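Colleagues,

For the teaching module next term, I've prepared a clean inverse folding example: a structure given as tokens, and then the sequence designed for it. I'd like students to try predicting residues themselves before seeing the answer, so please don't circulate the second half yet.
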């Protein structure tokens, strides 16, 4: 009897001890650690999610969409929650457009509680995966950037990175406007991970709608012309710019090689650059108009000033002649420009003098970027006056020894076309419907000088000019050819095989409404601007004049 009572007492004591321990544990969890555990429980059941703002659309001047955003999800998984990885992989992989083995490898991982299966999965594909109702598969709402016209203006538009932020081109330059303001969502889940409450704490504000000055029809034609140059001359690269010289609006800016904006990784890295602003080159004979413009401004010459010119000219230790040999010749300023005579241009440059030549280089804008709204613009290279050598005035007046961008050349010739007013080329026209204010421009030469240059540059496309074969019925054209040796980086000397061929001109010559500049880097076969670039000018001008219903004159 005593033994039984003792056992009962021990059992009672044991259970009493358990009750006391449970009470102490309850006190600890409920009071001492209550706040901490409550927060932990909340963190496991309540999640904060970012609601990405819809990125702003980019259109051309007619409202044609060039860049837009579509709903898309990031698809992820918690591998240990996926009960049948093989079956799940076989169902998901076709919808993601990837190999089943790739998805299975992710789902079979046991070293992590989170894996990505797909980024920016289009909404229809993500919805199809969601309908499979596979435990452990999760979706993060987002968007994907799409470019409806693939190649069109791709280097101008640029692209976005995996985080949805602009990484190049206008997507980068206008990131603050295009991105918008992200929203915030609060999600409460039950013990099974199912959403029981969803509340938007902050509404997402979409990005701005950006309208460009580009015209997609002109852009398409220009890109077609550059492709033709690529096929025929197999150059390292090419770029073309079309502007309205009266406003500075860029109607087209194209580059070759082309890039599919929806697949930039499929193009070589060098093709991604916008050559119009990112590449500098020695301009060659297109620079002779700068030399003549300065001499006209200083009244050192008139269009009809006559020069007796030798076959070649010696400047310090350099002997310079023309691309094609000639004997002694009597030529006027207008003939020198039309026939792109090196000896004549150097003679005019020396009459102007080094100090005034340097002054006009800077006044005409070649010592600084144009200030265009495109990113990555180079400033070019203009040697300081105190760095001139004895032979500098033998090469600088004919476009050797300085480096420019295609945009700088287009801007300067735009001033000739525009009566002497230099305007900043720009491509952004409206943001959310608001017209973007552009500078009124600044006068860099007199209206008389600009008029004289326009008249003289007609001769380049007339009989005896360096682009005489380019004609458009009913229209008078004006412009300048350029052919320049490139520097061989291995020797530091001018290459005898690598050239830049260029042409810049406007139409109609007496009432310029289009300015077209073309640069072809290292064409193979023909190398001269008159043969390589000038015909491209004719094709682009012929289309754009008709498209814009500009009457013959």
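(Answer key — instructors only)
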């Amino acid at each position: 009897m005593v033994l039984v009572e003792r056992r009962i007492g021990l059992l009672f004591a044991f259970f009493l001890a358990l009750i006391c321990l449970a009470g102490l544990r309850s006190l600890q969890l409920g009071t001492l650690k209550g706040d901490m555990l409550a927060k932990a429980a909340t963190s496991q059941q309540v999640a904060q999610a970012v609601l990405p703002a819809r990125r702003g659309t980019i259109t051309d001047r007619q409202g044609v969409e060039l860049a837009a955003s579509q709903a898309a999800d990031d698809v992820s998984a918690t591998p240990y929650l996926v009960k049948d990885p093989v079956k799940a992989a076989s169902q998901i992989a076709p919808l993601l457009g990837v190999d089943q083995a790739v998805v299975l490898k992710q789902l079979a991982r046991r070293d992590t509680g989170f894996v990505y299966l797909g980024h920016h999965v289009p909404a229809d594909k993500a919805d199809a995966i969601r309908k499979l109702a596979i435990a452990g598969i999760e979706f993060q709402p987002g968007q994907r950037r799409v470019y409806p016209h693939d190649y069109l203006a791709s280097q101008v538009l640029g692209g976005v990175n995996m985080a949805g932020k602009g990484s190049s081109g206008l997507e980068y330059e206008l990131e603050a406007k295009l991105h918008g303001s992200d929203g915030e969502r609060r999600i409460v889940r039950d013990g099974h991970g199912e959403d029981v409450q969803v509340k938007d704490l902050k509404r997402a504000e979409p990005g701005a709608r950006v309208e460009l000055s580009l015209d997609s029809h002109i852009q398409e034609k220009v890109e077609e012309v550059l492709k033709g140059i690529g096929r025929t001359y197999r150059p390292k690269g090419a770029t073309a710019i079309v502007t309205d010289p009266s406003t500075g609006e860029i109607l087209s800016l194209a580059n070759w090689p082309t890039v599919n904006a929806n697949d930039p990784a499929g193009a070589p890295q060098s093709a991604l650059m916008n050559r119009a602003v990112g590449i500098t080159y020695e301009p060659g004979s297109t620079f002779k108009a700068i030399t003549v413009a300065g001499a006209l401004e200083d009244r050192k010459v008139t269009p009809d000033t006559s020069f007796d010119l030798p076959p070649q000219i010696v400047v310090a230790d350099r002997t310079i002649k023309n691309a094609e040999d000639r004997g002694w010749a009597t030529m006027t300023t207008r003939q020198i420009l039309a026939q792109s005579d090196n000896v004549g241009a150097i003679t005019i440059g020396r009459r102007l003098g080094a100090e005034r030549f340097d002054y006009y280089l800077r006044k005409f804008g070649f010592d600084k970027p144009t200030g265009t709204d495109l990113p990555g613009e180079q400033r070019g290279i203009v040697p300081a006056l105190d760095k001139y050598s004895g032979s500098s005035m033998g090469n600088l007046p004919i476009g050797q020894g300085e480096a420019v961008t295609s945009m700088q050349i287009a801007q300067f010739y735009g001033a000739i076309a525009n009566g002497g007013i230099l305007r900043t080329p720009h491509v952004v026209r409206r943001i959310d419907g608001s017209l973007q204010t552009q500078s009124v421009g600044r006068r860099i030469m007199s209206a008389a000088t600009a008029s004289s240059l326009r008249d003289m540059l007609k001769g380049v496309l007339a009989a005896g000019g360096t682009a005489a074969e380019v004609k458009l019925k009913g229209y008078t054209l004006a412009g300048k050819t350029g052919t320049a040796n490139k520097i061989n980086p291995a020797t530091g000397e001018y290459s005898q095989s690598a050239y830049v061929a260029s042409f810049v001109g406007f139409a109609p010559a007496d009432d310029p409404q289009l300015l077209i500049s073309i640069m072809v880097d290292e064409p193979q076969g023909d190398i001269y601007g008159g043969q390589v670039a000038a015909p491209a000018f004719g094709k682009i001008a012929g289309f754009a004049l008709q498209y814009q219903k500009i009457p013959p004159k």
